[in-house]
Amino acid sequence: MRKALAFAALVTLLCTPRAAVAAPTAAACESLAALSLPHTTITLAQSVPAGEFTPPPPTNPPPGFNEAPLKNLPGFCRVAATASPTSDSVIKFEVWMPAANWNGKFQGVGNGGWAGRISYGALGAALQHNYATASTDTGHAGNGGDGSFAFGHPEKLVDFAERSVHEMTVQAKTLIAAYYGASPRYSYWNGCSTGGRQALMEAQRYPHDYNGIAAGAPANYWTHLMFACLWPAKADLIDPASFIPPGKYEMIQLAAFAACDALDGR
User: Fold this and answer.
1) b/e sequence 100-110, b meaning 16+ C-beta within 10 Å
2) DSSP annotation string for 197-245
């Protein structure tokens, strides 16, 4: 009986419609520039009209990089800030908040590779579903394929490993509460690869940051993973005979399918 009552109470809690939150004004968005946040400087607070948004160009983009504008976005309040929890920390993050029809929830979104850039596409996807959302560059500028920022900068490595996401999350919730006059009812993390690793770090180190976590394909055991990436190149350098030319890729793929494809019973 107690379990039934507890379950009924939980269903009631989750299914109760949220109280209406009045749509903030453009002035309310711009006023966030004056908000005081711990060891954080707000560099931008502006209302963005509905429609198309072109993300800022990345630092040192990979060859052929061409990010398309984000389309069909609702109007939103865009806040950019830089957190410096240590003397060697430069953690940039952005918080996007729907100007109307906020669902009352917050979604933090993750990165890929070595990060180095705010995940604008993921911000746009969350915004389209009426979430207030945030993303960070994890404390350095890069194209996601270069870890040299960490040489001689142990604090930046800590920022990348876990501190930047926590800082972003705490500051984002403060900004959301200031903008809407109400804190998020629920907060969720959504990330894949490095974003999945960030999800596991959040769950382990900062379990109160999020009510729910989606950890897709987590790039876990980072040291092991990096050495696994280096090992094939090392093997090629030691023994050139170990090099596999692209012409043999299809043969190897077919052999792998023949040996393993039936193992799942389909």
Assistant:
1) eebbbbbbbbb
2) HHHHHHHHH-TTS-SEEEEES---SHHHHHHHHHHHHHHHHH-GGG---
Q: Which strands form 40-48's sheet, in the order they lie side by side?
A: 40-48, 76-83, 91-98, 132-136, 105-109, 186-192, 212-216
pLDDT at 193: 95
- What number of other Cβ atoms are within 10 A of residue 57's Cβ? 9
Which helix (DSSP H) or strand (DSSP E) does residue 45 occupy?
strand 40-48
Residue 94 near residue 137, CB atoms below 8 Å: no
Domain ranges within the chain, ordered by starting residue: 19-53+66-220, 227-264
**Residue pair 76/128 in contact by the 8 Å Cβ criterion:** no
- Give the Å distances, CA to CA, from 247 to 197, 244, 250: 34, 8, 7
Residues of the chain with pLDDT under 50: 1-17, 19
Do residues 167 and 85 lie in contact, with contact meaning Cβ atoms separated by under 8 Å?
yes
pLDDT at residue 227 in the model: 81
Architecture of domain 19-53+66-220: 3-Layer(aba) Sandwich (3.40)
State the Cα–Cα distance between residues 81 and 92, nearest whole angstrom.
6
